[in-house]
Amino acid sequence: MSHKITVSAAINADAQKVWNYYTQPEHITRWNFADPSWQCPSASNDMKVGGKYAARMEAKDGSFGFDFEAVYNEIKDGENFTYTMPDGRQVHVDFKENNGQTHVDVAFDPENQNPEEMQKGGWQAILDNFKKYTESN
Question: What is the DSSP string of the chain?
């Protein structure tokens, strides 16, 4: 891929809490969806290089769902990680704390089936849901 799409959020929490809420399955299932009509009923995360991340995302009415999977390439605990999806696309997630606020940037290789603006909107909505969940718990 020649370029990445980046989504960002500034979360009013320290970096350790943000990292934990982003990477621990018991939290992932509470925020990993773009819309309230969706849910993430299961997630697992083997947070090590070569380890697998997996999450089930589905509409609450059961009309549609899919499994999201990836394998970790690099991890700097508490700072950033990179993973590769089965189709070869990569995602890099970066956490930077500044004065009690943590900036999360997610940069991902776009896929070819949906317009980039739609992809960016979906990933941003999930990140916004993560921000809302993290700040209110």
Answer: ----EEEEEEESS-HHHHHHHHH-HHHHHHH--SSTTEEEEEEEE--STT-EEEEEEEETTSS-EEEEEEEEEEEETTTEEEEE-TTS-EEEEEEEEETTEEEEEEEEPPPSSS-HHHHHHHHHHHHHHHHHHHHT-
